[in-house]
From TrEMBL:
Part of the high-affinity ATP-driven potassium transport (or Kdp) system, which catalyzes the hydrolysis of ATP coupled with the electrogenic transport of potassium into the cytoplasm. This subunit acts as a catalytic chaperone that increases the ATP-binding affinity of the ATP-hydrolyzing subunit KdpB by the formation of a transient KdpB/KdpC/ATP ternary complex. It is a single-pass membrane protein. HAMAP family: KdpC (MF_00276). It comes from Rahnella aquatilis (strain ATCC 33071 / DSM 4594 / JCM 1683 / NBRC 105701 / NCIMB 13365 / CIP 78.65). It holds the Pfam family KdpC. The system is composed of three essential subunits: KdpA, KdpB and KdpC. Belongs to the KdpC family. GO terms for cellular component: plasma membrane. This is Potassium-transporting ATPase KdpC subunit. The gene is kdpC.
Amino acid sequence: MSVTRMSYVRPALVMTVLLTLATGVVYPLLTTGVSELVFRPQAMGSLIKDSGNKVIGSELIGQNFTRNDYFWGRPSVTSDSPYNPMASAGSNLAASNPALDQAVKDRVAALRKANPQSPATVPVDLVTSSGSGLDPQISVEAAQWQAPRIAAARGLPLAQVNKLIDDNTSSPLIGYLGPDVVNVLGLNLALDERKAN
């Protein structure tokens, strides 16, 4: 190999090694360290623990609530089981696909059967899955739509259930970037705490 070629190869190899160390080792360690110092709960997965310090879920991943005395989240179509974080995916069904139409009709029928005292129009986020299949939140309208079922199942006045919804509603950081939402796990935990008290 000529001296001229060597003069190009050596700097290229040195830069490859340096950039690999900088972007593959130093930068990830630095960002991980800073995030654990500054944003520890979020860096650890935004975990929710019970009074015994046992992890019961995450603020970032939905759970499959099916009992009538709990609020239900958005449908999840992740493989193996609903809200499986290892298989995050949407249904990939096009809006023109008859299978999607049928799935929505089936969900509407099931929701109307479980919520006979709610209005006829079912909020769209209760019958359509998201792109990730892991959404932990529903719209305020979806929570209020389910409130009569929860009130009846728990023997609570509807006004108290609606107050719990209001207390657990969060707004986007910048108001126009999205609607107000309710974290389903947080709301269901608030229901259980109210029962315990």
